[in-house]
Every structure is written in C-alpha cells, then in structure tokens.
Design goal:
Elements (H helix, E strand, L loop, with lengths): L2 E3 L4 E2 L5 E3 L2 E3 L3 H4 L2 H6 L2 E3 L12 H21 L2 H10 L5 H23 L3 H5 L9 H27 L2
Antiparallel strand pairs: 1-2, 1-5, 3-4
Helix pairs in contact: 3-5
C-alpha cells in the first residue's frame, strides 16, 4: 500500500491520478522528492506484514511423516514387481534395484525420524528430502557423464594437436 493520501486513499505507482483537483502524471510518485509529496499530503505507508497461519506443529510433523511414507511407497512401487517375482518365482533381483530400494527405505526412515523429532517450525522447514536416483536415472546420468568426458577428451586432443 505504498503511497497514500491523508484521507487513506492508496495511490498506484506508474499510473496517473488526481488528488485535491490536481492531475499528476504517471511517473510523478517516482520522480518527485519527499517534500513535494508531503506538500500535497501524500506519504509512504509501510505495508503491514502478512500474517502466516500454520497448522499446529504436531499436525505438520504428522503430515511430513505421511508425505515421506507416501513418496517412498510411490518410489518403491515401480520395482515391487521384481520383489514379487523373486518371492513367487525365485527370480534374482538385480543388485542396482536392491540398492535403490534400500536407499529409498533409508531416506524414508531418516525423514520420518527428522519430522517426528522436530521441535519447531524452523526445524521442520530445514528438513531437506534427498531421494535416491532410480536405476534408470543413474544409468542415464552415468552415460551422459561418460559422453561429456569423451567429448572433452576429444576436444583437448584437438587443441593439443593444433599447436
């Protein structure tokens, strides 16, 4: 609510306005000095800070635990079929899948512990989720890194041979 008149009318920036039968240009509030504004009864009013209303701490902690468990469940669901096949049919589970599932469970447990033991809203806000890459994401990242490294080596060889 930046600039206001003595009557309490809010004046928008960068828009012409009329006050006390005087027409002001769109840039007047930006280019005029404080004394000019004061002479017309226009002043800056600091906006009141927004009030943030949050759920009770215990409910936010509980919601955080629920979100962590839900995310873990969704991440694990993509590989559940492999675990079921290993139990029902004796199929081996790939080591990268086993490692991924273990990492998801570790992260879910860590988050549940942090949410459960948080003693303030600030502690809740400081919790950072760090879910692991899926085996597919990891393979893609490693392939991308290898391609970039190879390109850099080729570029370095070209630069070295040109001297």
């Amino acid at each position: 609510m930046p600039y206001t008149t003595q009557e309490g009318r809010v004046l928008p920036l960068d828009k012409s306005f009329t006050h006390n039968n005087v027409q002001f240009g769109a840039n007047w509030l930006r280019v005029s000095n404080p004394e000019d504004k004061q002479s017309y009864g226009i002043s800056w009013t600091d906006p009141e800070p927004e009030v943030v209303v949050r759920a009770p701490l215990e409910r936010e902690k509980s919601d955080g635990v629920k979100r962590a468990k839900n995310t873990a469940g969704q991440l694990l669901a993509t590989t559940d079929w492999q675990i079921i096949a290993s139990v029902e049919r004796g199929r081996a589970v790939a080591s990268d899948v086993s490692e991924y599932r273990a990492a998801v469970i570790v992260e879910a447990d860590r988050l549940e512990s942090q949410y459960s033991t948080a003693e303030s809203y600030e502690a809740l806000d400081a919790i950072v989720q760090n879910w692991p890459e899926t085996p597919e994401e990891k393979a893609q990242r490693e392939a991308d890194e290898a391609r970039i490294k190879k390109q850099q080596e080729e570029d370095a060889a070209k630069e070295g041979g040109g001297e």
